# Entry
Amino acid sequence: MSINIFKINEELKEFIPQEVIDLEEKATWGNPKRGVMDLPYAKELLEEHSLCAGCPESMAFRYILASLPNPEDTIIVNSTGCTSLVFPHIALHTVHSLFGNQNAVATGIKRTLEWRFPDKVKDVIVLAGDGATVDIGLDCTLQSFFRQEKITTICFDNEVYANTGGQESGTTVQGHVFKMAPKGKQWPKVPMWQLAIDSGCHYVVRMSVSSPKKVEQVVKKAIYVAREVGPTYLHFYTPCILEIGLNSDDGLMEMRDKDKERFKFFEYVSPQAEEVIAKKKEEGLL
Amino acid sequence: MQKLSEELKNRAGQRIVDPEYLLFEAPREKVFMTGSEVVKEAVKRASVDASVSYPITPQSEAAHLIGELWVEGYVGVYFRGESEFGVMSELAGCAMAGARTITTTSGPGTLRAMENFPMWAGSRLPIQLVLMARGINSPLSIQPDDLEVSFLLDTGCMIWYAENAQELFDMILAGFVVAEQPDVHVPVVNVINGFFISHTRESVMLPPDDIALPPYNPYKAPMPPIDMEMPPGRFLRDPFVMKSNYISYATHTSWQFEVRAAIERARPYIKKYLGSLIEEFGDPEAEIVLVSAGTGAAQSKEAVRLLEDEGVKAKVVKLRTIRPFPINELREAVKNAKVIFVPEFNVVGWLEREIRRYLYKHSDAEIIGGPRVAGGMTMPPEIIVKDVLNYLGKEVKHVY
# Structure
């Protein structure tokens, strides 16, 4: 484990900001049982955030980072979009490279870390928006699934290109009017979770992030399965309240509404993934 | 670098030696090999951690052979990526995670991958690309043509240009050593003319294959590797400087300048490991100078020999590096020149443009862009001779 990289030189401590000292002293390192219930007590790996007030994506970030079973050896690869604005705030080694190449970069990192550190578990996670995952980066996303890369891919689906000002994306629902679809979207929402199953992912979930404990469960399962079996995919609804005309305090209700329809909880578990999940449950880690 | 112990082995079991020993001192044996085979021999002696491949003519064979090295245990990570865009991103991931990396591509593959090259440079990844130059579409051509190099000139990558298989072998090894210097640490593109070098056999002198370069040490890099093993714990490759304020704009600007400055700082290392940024051939005092690179330089040397038979003194200035550009070396080498020809394997004359730029107000010589061939045409030395004789108003006898 690499908790040492968060240790602060005693002689320099007086010059170090409190939030960095808190990372060493109050974050949950070396404890795979950490989870969203630690949020009120432990130092979070997200130092504030730079998203809009009330953005459901910020909730998703907090729940996911609180649920990583092995943060001290976790690398997150990101792509361009609203999500990328958050990455400078994350207290881990992270990457922003190009728009859409996130699963390719993650592949290189995962394989190299396996080569360099054969005796260590290094979890590599991709965390990107729907434009990066489903549109511009679809090739790299699916190809990493085909190749059975041992990485977890998490898509924050807000059903729109939000960071560039509200353009139609592949995950926008048919008929919805956004920029670049001035007559309404002409074709259906891309069922990315289904593509993930068909492309070889061993654990796939579609849901909103309305329930923190549920997020924790699926994030942990996805990471454990990716570690031992192969690619896993989580498709989270994180609505852009700004682009669909909601107020800052409406995000949670919007997700709860969609929990009953197009983001109804859906989980796919391959037989190999079942075994891993059963084993982790026995170990008390799930 | 300190003298390394004889006991020190890399993960393939090869004895680790000083780069100087591997490049200049180790006994060498003559072999008869293609450029593609020479890539394998260089990679075999380079303690390479990772390579990702994708098929495109004429580089495919070199990429296959790196795969064989992976099977034999000389390369740590190897697979076929989904496209050149994917491959170059996968290599970026490998390099960010601390690997010494190499790949090969050609023509349309280079352009497919293009978005990655400035990213490599901006991320300060010392990735090596062996570019086996070929035509780019449309119309489709798989034949030799180096137009693609012009697209790479301002990506922030070093660009070196090998004349033959021997130089390619030495440049691949030197490329890792120079590109990985902590004060350089930018990508290096080693160009050869596809087919002419990749597919033809020539004599090459190789050191033994039980010795290899010291492995890459990512902890000496100017940016921490992405492996959660090195502080700071909170680290984004690469830092975001895109907030809308003047400091961000200035930071981005200085970052870009720094990439170019890093290429400039490579000069002394290139001199150390390649000997010089240029090579001169022919009559040192000649007033007729042929400035070229790669196969163009090889053909120019033949032309100088033919011109000698015609009683015309000429010389070749071969550019080994395009980035950094050998500015002072070129100015010094052409100081007696009355006329400079720039033979090239493309239709646009990108090398001529470079030469005009750097000789402006530094040479009174007339600069003639040509002769040029492209799309797979060969460049017989006779066409260079013909251009020179025409310029001199001499009778063209033995040519055509």
